[in-house]
Amino acid sequence: MNRRYVALGDSMSIDDYAGGPGRGAASLLHANLGADFPDWAGRDLATSGWTLDVLARDGAVTADILHRQLPRLGGDPDLVTITMGGNDLLGVHGDDTAAAAVIGRVAAQGEGILARLPRTCRVVLTTVYDPSDGSGAAPGLTPWPAAPHWIRALNTALADLAGRHGAILADVHAAFTGHGVTAGDPAQTDARPANRDLWFCGVVEPNAWGAHAIRTAWWNALSQAAVTDRSCPLC
Hints:
Largest sheet: 5 strands, parallel
Number of strands: 7
Strand content: 5-15%
Order of helices and strands: EHEHEHHEHEHEEH
Distance between the termini: 16 Å
Radius of gyration: 17 Å
């Protein structure tokens, strides 16, 4: 029987900003695009016969995952990746008081999400990146000096969730550092810029190279788990 991979979450998971069908992070984890990433040949789930359902949606907040995506889960998946929290925090950009409340709300709703997932499936929870590269300033967004602090607080909450529920944590925040304003203009709109060190488009979206970086973080996190956990999907 084929094993099933489901992607829950927001635009960090989808194809839309990475150049079209098959190019987003979840799609690449499922089936590598050899024309773009030939060195990844065979390092995907489809090679082992997995299927893919992308329930993640552009603009989704954590409550959308809990109330709209989870009810569409259907049969029990074997692997779930989750990208959440970034839009919740973006929605209160510049407001420190509201940001503190958002962190608590994401943590509470995240508990509900992870508690509802089957215990038999492997879950990968993803940290949230920072297009300002720690500066608190990115094109198209009002400067918010405290933004890096709140992103770190959000990621700490996500790491705590992963630890409590036995999920794998994929540290996309660490992987993306240096690939935002430090590398170029994250507000540019090209999904496949010539500068492969720039991983953003539209300020906060992963372009094709960013999607590959997210896929890489997921794959590496799963591979590391496979070293000690024979129930890991990559085993």
